[in-house]
Amino acid sequence: MFPDLPMNEEAHLIEPERDQELVTVTLLKQYIYCPRVVYYETCTPGIRPRTYKMQAGSEAHDRERERAARRTLTAYQISEGERHFDVRIISRRLGLSGMIDEIVLTPHEAIVIDYKLTGRARDNHLIQIGAYGMMVEEAFNLPVQRGYIYLIDLHRFESVPIDGPLRNSVLETLKSMDRIRLYEYMPPPVESRFKCESCEFRRFCNDI
Question: What pTM value is reported for the model?
Fold first, then answer.
C-alpha cells in the first residue's frame, strides 16, 4: 500500500559516511541567512567552532523526536500514513544530502516535517524544507505539495506549500552556491548586521 524503502537508484537513503562531495541542505539554509557561511564551510573547511546555539538546537531536536512519535497524524490533515524519523537522504540530481526530521508517506503523497527551535519560520527555513520536499519527491516517486515546520517552543505547526516559486528559489540558490564553491568567491557581508552578533564566523570577517 505504501512505497517501500529503499527508493529509486538516483536518490536513496545512504550511510552518513558516503557521498561527502554533496552539499548539505543545512548549508543551503545557511546561504540564505548569510552567503559567507558557504565560503567558510567549503573554501576553508575545518575551522567552524561549535556554538551553544548549535548544541541547544541538537538537544531540543532529540527531545522533540520522542514527543513527535506519540503525536497523531491529525496535525498533517490526514488519517493514515507511514512515519519515518531522522531519514538520511541524497539527491544526485540536485547534488544535495541531508537528514529530514520526519517524513510521512501516504498512498498518494509524501509530507516533510522539519523541527525548529525558533519563534517563527524564516526564509532560510522555507528554502530548507523546499529542498527536502524536492528530494523526497525524487526519492519516493510521490508528489510533495506541502511540508510543515514545527516550532518547538510554541508547539505549533506552520504549513509550507512546496510550490513552483519555492522550488525555483532552491535551484537558483544552488547555482549561487556553486559560484562560491567553484571560484572561491567571497560574497559581500549581509546588510542586516544583527546576524553577525551571534555568528561563529564573525572573527573571520574583517570588514564588518
Answer: 0.84
